[in-house]
Design a protein that fits this description.
The longest helix is centred in the first third of the chain and has 9 residues, at 3-11. This protein has one domain (3-109). The protein has one helix at residues 3-11, and strands at residues 14-20, 24-29, 34-41, 47-59, 70-73, 78-82, 90-96, 101-109. It has 1 helix and 8 strands, in the order H-E-E-E-E-E-E-E-E. It is mainly β and 121 residues long. A hairpin with a 4-residue loop joins strand 5 (70-73) and strand 6. The protein has an 8-stranded antiparallel beta sheet with strand order 1-2-3-4-8-7-6-5, covered by helices on one side.
Length: 121
């Protein structure tokens, strides 16, 4: 998705707060579940990832298929990574400190990238 398309879609649901370095934008959302979204772009200003920051408790299982997701934990932080199909060019990553509810939800494009790379969010 292009930057203009993102702006058109997010402007209907929020307000852009600021642009940050590394081609990132922070949006305040008018959503009961999510407080804000961070949108990262590639060199051609196409969406590379979108990270939503939860403002209420959202269960991992409510946003992705946890039975098909890879679960990682260090005992304190939890991350679920789910790819909807082998052909999908994106993954969904849910993170949080609670074993049942997420704090961050990221949709990340992986086409031409290594899936294990972390975004700056």
């Amino acid at each position: 998705m292009s930057r203009n398309a993102v702006h058109a879609r997010l402007a209907a649901n929020g307000t852009m707060l600021r642009e940050e370095r590394k081609r990132q934008e922070v949006w305040e959302l008018r959503d009961v579940r999510f407080a804000s979204a961070i949108v990262g772009y590639d060199e051609e200003w196409r969406v590379r990832y979108v990270t939503a920051v939860a403002k209420e408790k959202i269960r991992y299982a409510d946003v992705l298929d946890i039975s098909a997701a890879e679960h990682r934990t260090d005992g304190h932080n939890h991350t679920y990574v789910w790819k909807p199909s082998p052909r999908a060019d994106y993954v969904i990553r849910a993170r949080g400190t609670d074993p049942d509810t997420l704090t961050y939800l990221t949709l990340r494009r992986i086409a031409g990238e290594h899936e294990s790379e972390e975004e700056d969010d």
